[in-house]
From TrEMBL:
One Pfam family this sequence matches: RRF
Family the UniProt entry places it in: Belongs to the RRF family.
Membrane is among the record's keywords: no
Organism: Comamonas faecalis
Function comment: Responsible for the release of ribosomes from messenger RNA at the termination of protein biosynthesis. May increase the efficiency of translation by recycling ribosomes from one round of translation to another.
UniProt keyword terms in alphabetical order: Cytoplasm, Protein biosynthesis
PANTHER family for the chain: MITOCHONDRIAL RIBOSOME RECYCLING FACTOR PSEUDO 1, RIBOSOME RECYCLING FACTOR
CDD domains, per database record: RRF (cd00520)
Main location, first listed in the record: cytoplasm
Domain spans labelled Ribosome recycling factor: 21-184
Protein name stated in the entry: Ribosome-recycling factor
Region annotation Disordered: where it falls in the sequence: 142-167
Amino acid sequence: MSIDEIKKTMDAKMEHSIAAFKNNLSKIRTGRASIGMLDTIHVEYYGSMVPLSQVANVSLLDSRTLSVQPWEKNMGAKVEKAIRESDLGLNPASMGDLLRVPVPPMSEERRKEMTKLVRSEGEGAKVAVRNLRRDANDAVKKLVKDKQASEDDQKRSEADVQKMTDKRIGEIDTLVAEKEQDILAI
């Protein structure tokens, strides 16, 4: 494996780490309703636990209300119970075969907890990026040790890897700041 291949692999893995971080951020609740809020909820369906999205259609009615439409009439009560028992603090209201899920505004204390959670997720993503940096640098050191690359190549590679790492960490910091603003906005 050449130094360029090592850098390309590291960059692709960093991109995956940031994509996973963005996915985790989308599941963290802000003051507004979003269909991603219910992604973590599982419902009992014929003896097995399945994600809510596999038994019902979830959509937005307005910025503070979600609509959940179970595909089978007998699933309404189970879906309602699963939403109510989740740790999201939501209280669905049944309207025939449609569930309206109002998203209550968060208290100041809850907002602070959520920002701490966002920061913690951000730190986890930064650790993942730094581990990828270390792995890339170790792979280049192995090439130098095996006499497949020079020490000058190693120094240039380490500088390039550090620039890529700094760029990705900057992206993570930006995402964390944006999510914190979302949470703290009333």
